[in-house]
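To: structure subgroup
Subject: Chain for Friday's discussion

All,

I'm putting the inputs and outputs inline so they're searchable in the archive.
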Amino acid sequence: MFRKPGAYVPVAMSLAALGIVLARIALFGVAREPDEGAAAHWWQLLMGGQLPLIAVFMYRWLPRAPRAALLLFGLQAAAALAALAPVYFLKW
């Protein structure tokens, strides 16, 4: 089931959002700026854009294969939390 785009695209989007945050920290440090900048906008688009994909995936696969769908949902949630953690802990 992980070969289905609805399963791996949200995980890839979360990992891309995490990569954006880590690259931003590596290049510019953790100092806050008055303007959010492009990195913050890309992060917001990636994190918000995956929500409808996850909803469609769960709607489609939860009745068919509940165990596998919940396992993949847990993976998607873990990836999203990994992308949210630096933003939360650095108070951006």
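Points worth raising on Friday:
Residues 5-29+37-89 form one domain.
The helical segments are 5-28, 38-61, 66-89.

D.
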